Amino acid sequence: SIDCNGSLPCKYILEYAFPGLGGITAVLIYASALPAIAKINSSQELGVFNPIPFSLQISSTLAWVLYGFLLKNYFLFFPNAIGMLLGVYYTISLIPVVSIRQREVILRFVLAGIACVFVGSLISFIGLENLDQVQRKLPLGITSVAIQVVYFASPIGVIESVIKVYSAILI
Fold it and tell me: pTM of the prediction?
């Protein structure tokens, strides 16, 4: 933790400006797929686009929304709420154009991810309700980070194809 020695500008920058910029950056990252999704929706062809990460985006952002709720931190809550809604939109939009195998993988990731979030939330919100906030946030925090690691790793499955065609568009 950085000590601002009573400096209000320092405190404002650390407590509002940087977290606000982080939230804006997160929303921009979550929204960055909108043009590609619009193109896929209009052409009704998936091509080489990888739809799997969006199914993980749903549970990852849901976990962070609940973690932000637990901490009463709107810098976590709102950007991830937008990311969750976009993840749901992307996933539902892509269902008509994905293969049956991809649809099964997407369904499994959505259901397994949400189940993990529910378990972490159950422990944090109900199982540990009599403990202090530091102890209560741990299970949901671990759940959030674990799902995020899987979410960020999900494009790795297409790395072999990226190397073969020398194009990152597959990611």
Answer: 0.84
